[in-house]
Amino acid sequence: MTPTVTRIVRRSATAPTDFDAVRTVIRRELVTRFVNRSIVVSTLMLGALAGLGAGVGGWFLVDRFGSTGTLALDTQFLVATAMISALLAALIYSSQSLASGVVEEKSSRLVEILLTKIGVTPLLAGKLIGVGLVTLGQLLVIGGAALTSFTVVGGWSVLDIELGANLLWFLVWFLLGFCSFATLSTLLASMVSRHADLGTALTPLVVSQLVLWVVALYLVPQYLASTWIQVLSFVPLLSSYLMPMRFALDGVHTVEMVIAALIAAVTVPLLFRFTTTIYRKNALRTGSLVAMREPSTADETA
């Protein structure tokens, strides 16, 4: 089947600057999701359930072990497990939400207007930042409810743990992981034209994250000092899951965390540039997929 191609017209001289365009897209993504009642209600319900679960769990711990002092558990591992699981859920949800929006715009031909008025790079950057802010806000609501409830019932009195550094690095790896995996989701979403094909396109990315989650929870603690675990934890994408667990188990120095984070941060713009190239080739195409090596024409440059 011969692909149908609509050429991207260059933005006019009166078009907004890239900064204004990115800000416009961010605002559009935020408004679209905040006015979506299902997203707001589901977030509040998850926050209420998280708060209820943490409150009940904290009350049980205090009631059962409060008189005996600190609970003899590997709390660092438990916190790392909770954070890795939250990271997995947040990255999969946000990536699928972003990819779904890309396919919806493409199937409705709205993308033609967006690319003409805004351009490829500001459009994708705005979508990534907008969806990332929404996802981070949801994490803060749900996690904040759980932490507040656990604190109110005095749950921390029986746990010997310092959350400060763990939460800080969790935020760092969430941001780096989101930028990487969400960018890849956008790339894959740009290569399909129907929602029915989106699940198939994203399956490899979702499966790879599940595999990383399993490796982080089960293999990293068992092979913490192994060279192959140490090497893999510096690889971009993999580091978002492996480094937090190594840090929680005291299997990595802070300088190693910083180096791994810098490597991941340098990879993000390279991955984003590659994604914009593929998106530019595929965004306005229907029918067959375009090969990744197909050169872009001058008319396709936004």
UniProtKB/TrEMBL annotation:
Q: Which residues form the ABC-2 type transporter transmembrane domain?
A: 80-272
Compartment(s) where it occurs, according to its Swiss-Prot or TrEMBL record: Membrane
Task: List the taxonomic lineage.
Answer: Bacteria, Bacillati, Actinomycetota, Actinomycetes, Micrococcales
Question: What keywords sit in the KW lines?
Answer: Membrane, Transmembrane, Transmembrane helix
Q: Under which name does UniProt file this protein?
A: ABC-2 type transport system permease protein
Q: Which organism is it from?
A: Enteractinococcus fodinae
Q: How does it sit in the membrane?
A: Multi-pass membrane protein
What parts of the sequence cross the membrane? 38-62, 82-103, 124-147, 167-189, 255-272
